[in-house]
Amino acid sequence: MLLEHLFLSVLGIAVGMFGTIVGVGGGFILVPLLMIVYKATPPIAVGTSLCIVALNAISGSISYARQKRIDYRTGMLFALGTIPGAIAGASLIDYISIAAFDVGFGVFMMVMAAYMTMKPSVQRESGGSSPSLEFDPSRRIQYNLPMGMFVSFVVGFLSSLAGIGGGLVHVPAMIYLFHFPTFIAVSTSHFILAISTTVGAASHISLGHVLWDKVPSLGIGVIIGAQIGARLSHRIHTQIIVRGLAVAVVIAAIRLIAKHL
Length: 261
Fold this sequence. Notes:
The chain is mainly α and 261 residues long. It has one domain. Helices cover 73% and strands 0% of the residues. It is built from 10 helices and no strands. The chain is globular and about 50 Å long.
C-alpha cells in the first residue's frame, strides 16, 4: 500500500511537471493507466483523471499568474465555451460502450502521440518571468471569437468524455489558428483547464465516477509537479520528454485497442 501511494505520488509529480510545461492536463496518461492497471471502467477512469487534471491546472495557473503570463480575457471567454461541452460529455459517457471507448480513445491517443512528436517545442518561448515574456494587454491578439468559442466547446466535450485536459487542442489552436505567442498560449490554456476541468470533474463527482482512494496521492503529486514545471518551463527543453511520452502513449493505445481485436 505504501509503495502504491509512493508510485502514484511520483507519477503525479511527473504528470504535473510535463503538463504545466507544455500546457496540457495529463489525462491522456492517467486514463489508460487507471483502466489498464486498476481495471477502472471508462467513466470511473475519466472522472478520476479529471479530478487530478483540475488540481494540476489550478496549481500551474497560480504559478503562471505570478509570472504574469495569462491572457485572462481570452481565458475566461474560452473557458465559458468549454463548460457546456464538459457537461455534455459527462452526461453522455454512461451511454458509450467500453469497446467503443477503448478503440476510439486508443486511436485518439495515437493521433495525439504523432502530434506531440511532430509539433515544435514550446521551450524557447514558454518560460521564465522575463518582462518580454509577460502578457501585455495593450498588444492583445485579434482572433475569430466565434471560432474560438466553438473550438472551446469541442475541447470541453473531449475533456469530459475522454478525461483529457483539453490543452492538446487549445494550445495548437491558439498558436496556429489564432496566432498567439506560444508562451501565452501555454499559460492561458492552463488557466482555461483550471476552469473547464473543475466543471467536468464536478459533473463526474455528482455521478459517482471517482476512485477516491487514488486521488490524494496523485493529487499531491500533480500540485507539486505543476509548481516545479512552471518554474522550470524556461530552462528545460521539452522535446525529449515529449517524444518519450509519445512512445508510452502509443504503447498504452495499442494495449487498449488490442483487447478488442
